[in-house]
Design a protein that fits this description.
By secondary structure, the protein is mainly α. The chain is 52% helix and 9% strand. The chain has six helices and three strands. Helix 3 (73-82) packs across helix 4. The N and C termini lie far apart (43 Å). The model is unreliable at 14-19 (pLDDT under 50).
Length: 139
């Protein structure tokens, strides 16, 4: 790494380190075997065949699980309100669909705290829209 690149990198890290409003990694809550019967695993963003396979495997192992409903253009537009513009369309559809599902849970009367305790999300997309999910569900 050249001295100029290292200087820029150090300056960027210094800015990030001192900028309290930009979380670099949210708190991750554990998902334990004891929660198997009380926490629902949500998943989506895969092909319908993969979703049915995963659903069967998880349910067969004793886990509560639910695949998300089929996504649509409205989900894509919802994600674009919260996601960075550089995200690819599949991520926008997946994140928007999850946001919409979580909002429906809130509309049914669950609080954000109850949702966090009762649901986890599993997908093949890594770190997709993490800040969008944090911003899209109202506390």
């Amino acid at each position: 790494m050249s001295a100029k690149t290292q200087s820029r990198f150090t300056a960027t890290m210094h800015i990030r380190k001192n900028h309290a409003s930009v979380p670099l990694r949210p708190q991750e809550l554990p998902f334990t075997a004891e929660e198997r019967g009380s926490v629902t695993i949500l998943f989506g963003g895969l092909t319908w065949k993969h979703e049915r396979l995963i659903e069967g495997l998880l349910a067969g192992a004793g886990y509560l699980c639910q695949h998300l409903p089929e996504t649509d253009r409205d989900a894509h537009e919802l994600a674009q309100e919260y996601c960075a513009s550089g995200m690819c369309n599949p991520v926008d559809f997946t994140v928007g669909n999850l946001l919409r599902y979580l909002r429906r849970l809130q509309d049914s009367g669950l609080s954000a705290e109850q949702i966090v305790k009762k649901y986890v999300y599993f997908t093949a997309v890594v770190d997709a829209g993490r800040s969008a999910l944090e911003d899209g569900v109202q506390p």
